[in-house]
Description:
Layout: H1 8-17, E1 20-21, E2 24-25, H2 34-46, H3 56-95, E3 101-105, E4 108-111, E5 117-123, E6 127-135, E7 141-148, E8 153-159, E9 172-182, E10 185-188, E11 191-201, E12 210-213, E13 217-220, E14 226-227
Antiparallel strand pairs: 1-2, 3-11, 3-14, 4-9, 5-8, 5-11, 6-7, 6-9, 9-10, 11-12, 12-13
Domain FlgD/Vpr Ig-like: 107-181
Function: Required for flagellar hook formation. May act as a scaffolding protein.
Organism: Rheinheimera tilapiae
Amino acid sequence: MMTTVSNTSGSSYIDSLKGVNDGAKKEDSGALTQSDFFALLTQQLAFQDPTKPVENDQMIAQMTSFTMADGISSLNTNFKDFAASMNSNQALQASSLVGRNVRVNSDTLIFDGTNKSYGAIEVPGKTTSMKVSIYDASGALVKSDTVSNPDEGKFELAWDGTNEAGVKQTAGLYTMKIDATVDGKSQSLVTSSYVPVASVTLGTSTADMKLNLLGLGAKKMSDILEIAAG
């Protein structure tokens, strides 16, 4: 008489992987955990062909592969947590800039009708003279001044908001232009201005974060050349 043997233990194990346990269905993320791997490995060893057992190097390779995959998965999770923490710190630091002045490359001067407006120029070597000109929104010249033999490097200028006659101008946006004589040749110099930070726009990463500058619109954090003292 031939006897049929039912592999109940293997079936029970397969059912447990499917989340079936006495009729209760567990929530499954779809990914095998370390416990699942070792359970599978145990089943593999239990049902292997006794005449062709698994080689030790194959078993070690399987365990090493899973350990590496599990480590990479944990590293990715930790990195995401770290990135989220960095973004939060960046957002907190950026929010502290609201109301402060930052320097960006621009030829625009912001005049509030009362306080001085500040700009800056990087003066190249062998500069013998500079002519600083300020224009209103219509393009009319408001004021000009000449600086002889300026020192090489950063040169800061301050405009009190008056024209050539000493009359205070209205609040608004003005344009500065710097014409210089460098090594005997005429050229225009790149200007920058100090502008108040009105607000901060937060993005999904630090690269998306923007500072909204009064009169100049949104600028990236990488566009900021200098943060003025509060």
